[in-house]
Amino acid sequence: MYKKAGFFKRREVLKDANFLDLTPLPMHGHEMEEGGTVRVLIPRFQGKLSEKILQPRLKSPYIKLSLDELGSAVWQACDGKQNVRTICHKMRQQMGEKIEPAEDRITRFLSNLYNKDLIIFREILKEQ
After folding, report:
1. Per-residue pLDDT band at 1 (split at 50, 70, 90)
2. Which of 53, 85, 99, 120 lies 20 to 30 Å (CA to CA) from residue 17?
3. What is the pLDDT of residues 24-51, one digit of tens each?
4. What is this structure's pTM?
């Protein structure tokens, strides 16, 4: 969906940023599972040649990553309009005591998604 930024560019932009003020955007699509959780669809191949040669031998063109209840709610809230602080407040209202400490858990989860190139922050896109 979005162009990946290089390691040094991402690091430069986020060096002085407050994580709660960043606006996350998903880089991949998703599908809903039966229980209401989200399954993220990560493309198996990036290059056209490998996709053309190897894809016909495989069942699915995607690697499917299933998220738990909290992860699913946060993934759905990452719409590019809400910053992390707003998402934390929304999750606290939606899940109550089950999510506490909300800021720590959600920022750690989004940091992991960002490090695995599953999300990007709008502020990085503005700098490109």
Report:
1. very low
2. 99
3. 999 888 888 888 889 988 887 666 666 5
4. 0.77
* Contact call for residues 92 and 5 (beta carbons, < 8 A): no
Three state DSSP letters for 19-44: HHHCCEEECCEEEECCCCCEEEEEEC
What distance lies between CA 89 and its chain's CA centroid? 18
Domains and CATH numbers, the chain: 7-127 (3.90.930.60)
Work out the average pLDDT over 40-69.
74
**Are the C-beta atoms of 23 and 81 separated by less than 8 Å?**
yes
